[in-house]
C-alpha cells in the first residue's frame, strides 16, 4: 500500500509523525507492506513554492492508496483577510480534486476521559455519534465575489441533488450497521439550499424504512448536541453546518485532540485530525498525537479493510489512557493519578 | 407607550401572555401608561389571511413604541419544504422592514440554575456573555434560487460594509460598558463575506483601543463556547453564525426557556424569547414563561429606559427560582426541594 503523508502546518508536523509511526509498527507486526511518501500543502507549501497545493503533491495524492494529513493554516493569513493566496485553498482543492465528498467524523468518548470534558459525565456516558459531513459542496465551493470598491462580498451557498443523494446514501448505509437512527441537519425554514437538502433526504429515507429518520434545524442541533448527545446516532449535514457541529462535538470526546476523521469518495481515502494547526502550541511538543494516531486507525479500517489492526491501535490508545498518560488538553485538573506528557512521550 | 403584542405560533401564545402581564403589573406599580394592541404573524396569520405578515400587523408595528413577540413556525411547513408561503417569512420580513439589524442576546446563568445545565457548574459559574447577532443581512436575505428542474438550489451569503460597521459599533459600545472584551466570529479562512467582515472589524477596532478584540473562526467558537464560556464578554457575529451560537449558548443559561432577546435598529424595538414555537409542548401549559418575561424586562430597559423597573422584573424572576419553582425544562432531576409548575403557575 502506498501512503502519502502530508504533515501540513503548525502542530500538523509533530502529530503526523506519530500517525505514521503507528502505521509503520502495524506493518511490522502484521507483516504488511506500507510504503510512505511525503508531500507538502498549506502555508509550508506557499513558502516553498508559492502554491498551497503544488501539482507535485496532487500527483502523489492521485497515485497513493491513502493519505495521512496533519493540519492547515497560519496566523499570518488569519490576520490579513486581504491576502489572495491562502493555505486553506490547498485543503479545499485536494478535497475537490480527489472527489472526497463524504467526511466521516466519529465522536466517541474513551471511558478514561469521562472527566476531561466541560460537560457532565452522566450526560456524556455512552454517547457515540458518527457524523457525515458533506465535503465538496455548499458555501465552501460556490462562487465567491468581491465588488470592485471592495465594499460588498458574497459566497454562494449551493447544493445539487446528486450531491445530497450520494452523502445521504453513505450515511444511511452506516446507520444500518449501527443503532439505525439518522438525523439530518439543515436550516430549511430559511434556506432554499436546505429545502432541497430536506426534500432529497425525505426521498432517500424511503429507501431505508428500517432506519428512523429525524430532521433538525442547525440551531436546534447545536443545542441538542450539548444538552443530550446520546440522542444522536448518525448525523448527516452539509459542509458548513458539519464544520461547526463537529468542532462543537469535540467537547463530547473530551478534547479536539482526540478526534480523527476520514474523507472518502471516488477512490483515495484521506485521513486527518479534526483539530487545526494550533500555532500557539506548535513546536512545543505538547500537542496531543492521538487524533493523528486514531486517523491512522481509520485508514487501516476504511481504506485497507484491516479491522483487526485498526482495533489494535484503538486498544493501544485506550491502554495508554488507562495508565493515566495525558497531554495537557485532556488532563483533568481534579485527579491525582495522571501523568502529563509531551507529544512524543504520549505517542 | 404603545406596545404591540404578537404572540405568533405554538407556545408563543401561552408565554407571551405572561410577558404582557408583567408589563401591566409594572405599569400599575410604577404609574406608567402602557397601551397594548395585538397583531398576528406566522402560521396563525397564514391561516387567517394567507399572509405570514399581514399589512395590518406591519402598520401596527410601525406605529408602536415596542413590540413583544412570542415564537414562529409550524411542523406542517417543516415537513413540506416545497411549500411557498412559510411562517418564518413573517419574522424575516418584519426584521427587515423595521430595520432591526442588531439582535442582542444576553446569556447569563441565574445562580439558582447552576445545576440545570448539561455543562459542569464550575465551567458555568460567572459566565456572562452578550451576543450581538447581525439580523438583516447574510445568507438569510441574499437572493434565493431554484433551477427549473428543481435539482439545484442556492442562497447568496452576502454582506455590505455598512452592515458590518453599524453592528460592530453597537457591539463595541456595549463592550465599553462591560468587561471591555469583544470577540468577532467569522469563517474568514474560507468565506469572502467573512473576509470583508474581518477587514471591517479590524478597522472599527482601531476606534476602540480600550476594548480588547479577538477574532475567532465559527467552528472554534462553537467549541470554545462549551469548553470555556467565561472567556467571552461581548460576541459579535453574522446572522447565520449568530443563530447557531446563541441556540448553543442556551445550555450556558440552563435552558432555552430562559433566554430573552432584543432586536434594535432604526426606531422600534422588538423583544422575543430565543426559543421557537415548540409545537410538541404547545397548549399543554408547561412551557417556561421566563424568556418572555425577561424579554419584557429588556423592553423596559432598552426601549423605555426604565432601568429600575427592568431590574425589578429580573429580581422577581430570581426570587421565584430561589423559592424552588421550576418548569420542566429547568428542573434538576437530582434535587428534592423543587416544585415543578405549569406555565401559568410559574408566571
Ligand atoms: C481549515 C478549514 C478550511 C477546514 C474546514 O473548514 O473545512 C477545517 O476547519 C476542517 O474542519 O477541516
Ligand atoms: C425561526 C427562525 C427564522 C429564526 C432565525 O433563524 O432567525 C429563529 O431561529 C431565531 O433565532 O430567531
From TrEMBL, chains A, B:
GO molecular function terms attached to this record: 3-isopropylmalate dehydrogenase activity
First-level EC class: oxidoreductase
Site, as annotated: Important for catalysis: 140, 187
Protein's recorded name: 3-isopropylmalate dehydrogenase
Reaction(s) catalysed (UniProt annotation): (2R,3S)-3-isopropylmalate + NAD(+) = 4-methyl-2-oxopentanoate + CO2 + NADH
This enzyme's EC code(s): 1.1.1.85
Transmembrane segments: none
Top-level taxonomy: Bacteria, Pseudomonadati, Bacteroidota, Chitinophagia, Chitinophagales
Location in or out of the cell: Cytoplasm
Cofactor(s) recorded in Swiss-Prot or TrEMBL: Mn(2+); Mg(2+)
Protein family (similarity comment): Belongs to the isocitrate and isopropylmalate dehydrogenases family. LeuB type 1 subfamily.
Cofactor note: Binds 1 Mg(2+) or Mn(2+) ion per subunit.
Domain Isopropylmalate dehydrogenase-like: 2-347
Positions that bind substrate: 95, 105, 133, 219
Cell division listed as a keyword: no
Free-text function comment from the UniProt entry: Catalyzes the oxidation of 3-carboxy-2-hydroxy-4-methylpentanoate (3-isopropylmalate) to 3-carboxy-4-methyl-2-oxopentanoate. The product decarboxylates to 4-methyl-2 oxopentanoate.
Oligomer status and interactors: Homodimer.
Classification via NCBIfam families: leuB (TIGR00169)
Annotated residues for binding of Mg(2+): 219, 243, 247
Pathway: Amino-acid biosynthesis; L-leucine biosynthesis; L-leucine from 3-methyl-2-oxobutanoate: step 3/4
Gene behind this protein: leuB
Keyword Repressor assigned: no
Keywords: Amino-acid biosynthesis, Branched-chain amino acid biosynthesis, Cytoplasm, Leucine biosynthesis, Magnesium, Manganese, Metal-binding, NAD, Oxidoreductase
Pfam families to which the protein is assigned, alphabetical: Iso_dh
UniProt-listed InterPro entries: IsoCit/isopropylmalate_DH_CS, IsoPropMal-DH-like_dom, Isopropylmalate_DH
Amino acid at each position: 500500500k502506498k501512503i502519502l503523508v502530508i504533515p501540513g502546518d503548525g502542530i500538523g508536523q509533530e502529530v503526523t509523525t506519530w500517525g505514521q509511526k503507528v502505521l509503520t509498527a502495524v506493518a511490522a507486526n502484521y507483516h504488511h507492506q506500507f510504503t510512505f511518501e511525503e508531500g507538502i500543502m498549506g502555508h509550508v507549501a506557499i513558502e516553498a513554492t508559492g502554491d498551497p497545493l503544488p501539482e507535485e503533491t496532487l500527483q502523489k495524492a492521485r497515485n497513493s492508496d491513502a493519505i495521512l494529513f496533519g493540519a492547515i493554516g497560519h496566523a499570518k493569513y488569519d490576520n490579513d483577510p486581504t491576502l489572495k493566496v491562502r493555505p486553506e485553498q490547498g485543503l479545499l482543492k485536494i478535497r475537490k480534486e480527489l472527489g472526497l465528498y463524504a467526511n466521516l467524523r466519529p465522536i466517541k468518548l474513551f471511558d478514561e476521559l469521562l472527566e476531561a470534558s466541560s460537560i457532565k459525565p452522566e450526560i456524556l456516558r455512552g454517547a457515540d455519534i458518527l457524523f457525515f459531513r458533506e465535503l465538496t459542496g455548499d458555501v465552501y465551493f460556490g462562487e465567491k465575489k468581491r465588488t470592485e470598491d471592495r465594499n460588498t462580498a458574497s459566497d454562494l451557498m449551493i447544493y445539487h441533488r446528486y450531491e445530497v443523494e450520494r452523502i445521504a446514501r453513505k450515511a444511511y448505509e452506516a446507520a444500518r450497521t449501527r443503532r439505525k437512527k439518522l438525523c439530518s441537519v439543515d436550516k430549511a425554514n430559511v434556506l432554499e439550499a436546505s429545502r432541497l437538502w430536506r426534500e432529497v433526504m425525505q426521498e432517500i429515507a424511503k429507501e431505508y424504512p428500517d432506519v428512523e429518520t429525524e430532521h433538525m434545524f442547525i440551531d436546534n442541533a447545536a443545542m441538542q448536541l450539548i444538552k443530550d448527545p446520546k440522542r444522536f446516532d448518525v448525523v448527516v449535514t452539509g459542509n458548513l453546518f458539519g464544520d461547526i457541529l463537529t468542532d462543537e462535538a469535540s467537547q463530547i470526546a473530551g478534547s479536539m485532540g482526540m478526534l480523527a476523521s476520514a474523507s472518502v469518495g471516488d477512490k483515495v481515502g484521506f485521513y486527518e485530525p479534526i483539530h487545526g494547526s494550533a500555532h500557539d502550541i506548535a513546536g512545543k511538543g505538547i500537542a496531543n498525537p492521538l487524533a493523528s494516531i486514531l486517523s491512522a486507525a481509520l485508514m487501516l479500517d476504511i481504506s485497507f479493510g484491516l479491522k483487526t489492526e485498526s482495533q489494535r491501535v484503538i486498544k493501544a490508545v485506550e491502554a495508554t489512557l488507562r495508565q493515566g498518560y495525558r497531554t495537557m488538553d485532556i488532563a483533568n485538573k481534579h485527579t491525582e493519578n495522571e501523568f502529563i506528557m509531551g507529544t512524543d512521550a504520549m505517542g
